[in-house]
Design a protein that fits this description.
Number of helices: 7
Helix content: 55-70%
Strand order of the largest sheet: 1-2-3
Length: 208
């Protein structure tokens, strides 16, 4: 087991507030999840009534037949897919309620900060530790969020290419502020709240 894999398992165990893998109870967005061990003593994730059904719930239109999840990366990816799907739905709600680009971007940024503050372990599992997983569902969940950020930036950009680059800069800034604040690296003489730092960044970002 590599150090990265141990970090992933530690995050999953922290999410469950139970040590070990077997019978670890998890919930996200009112979706019950369970980490169990299969006949080969490998971790699997399920939300079906039958703990051997190997079903991950919470994706686009019902159930994702996840099949055999035989590694911590597959398990982390399954949790992250559910997390990203829920966050994408939050961003879609922001877009539908706020037609103005600047308002969208400020509320998207606040939603990111809220997620980091309210679910720090889910945030860390999603952003702080690399996950070696390359399924279509995993990448679709990532692109769904990114495309929503690009759409919010697009009215402020001369073309689609610039909008995509701006979206990456915005996402990187939000991530960096949260990660450095979480580790105490931004407390250099004064402890600025993350909201104030993000507001300062957005004031400059929206002028560019």
């Amino acid at each position: 087991t590599t150090q990265r894999e141990r970090m992933l398992w530690q995050l999953v165990a922290t999410l469950s507030q139970v040590s070990g893998v077997s019978d670890v109870a998890l919930t996200y967005n009112q979706t019950p999840l369970r980490v169990i061990t299969n006949d080969d003593n490998q971790p699997v994730l399920t939300s079906g009534r039958d703990p051997r059904s190997l079903v991950v719930r919470g994706l686009d239109f019902g159930y994702l037949q996840a099949g055999r999840i035989d590694s911590i990366d597959g398990l982390a990816a399954a949790i992250n897919i559910i997390t990203m799907t829920g966050f994408a739905e939050t961003l879609e709600g922001i877009a539908s309620e706020n037609p103005k680009a600047e308002t969208q971007l400020r509320r998207i940024s606040q939603a990111y900060l809220d997620f980091h503050r309210e679910s720090p372990h889910l945030w860390s599992l999603l952003f702080a530790v690399p996950v070696d997983h390359h399924s279509e569902d995993y990448h679709k969940a990532i692109y769904r969020i990114f495309d929503l950020v690009v759409a919010a930036v697009r009215p402020l950009s001369p073309d689609a290419g610039v909008a995509r680059r701006k979206a990456k800069v915005l996402w990187s800034a939000l991530h960096g502020i949260c990660l450095l604040h979480q580790s105490g690296k931004l407390n250099v003489g004064e402890n600025d709240p993350t909201e104030e730092l993000v507001d300062t960044f957005l004031d400059q970002f929206l002028k560019s």
